[in-house]
Design brief:
Layout (H helix, E strand, L loop, with lengths): L10 H13 L3 H8 L3 H8 L7 H11 L3 H19 L1 H5 L13
Helix pairs in contact: 1-3, 2-3, 4-5
Length: 104
Amino acid sequence: MKTVNRRPTPPGEILHEEFLVPLGLTQKQLAEALGVARRRINEIVKGKRAITVDTAIRLGRFFQMTPQFWLNLQLHLDFWEAEYKKAEEYEKIKPHEQTSLASL
């Protein structure tokens, strides 16, 4: 079921390493620019908080990019972690014999 063995890079790590550091921004400065608590940014950077739709929209507007970029990073990580943690459980699920895309 898993397609990638390596855990995707967390969005907070990308935010920190590819945006904050190169632009010389602090977490506090970003939080103020986005109108959110500094704690939210800090928890995202530390991998303790996920990117929400609201946060993705704010980051997208600030960095002049699509919110989908941030949501896709989070989605890839969430899928990988779910598949990794519950792989054996998912493998026990057998497809329904009479269900196919053609019948939908």
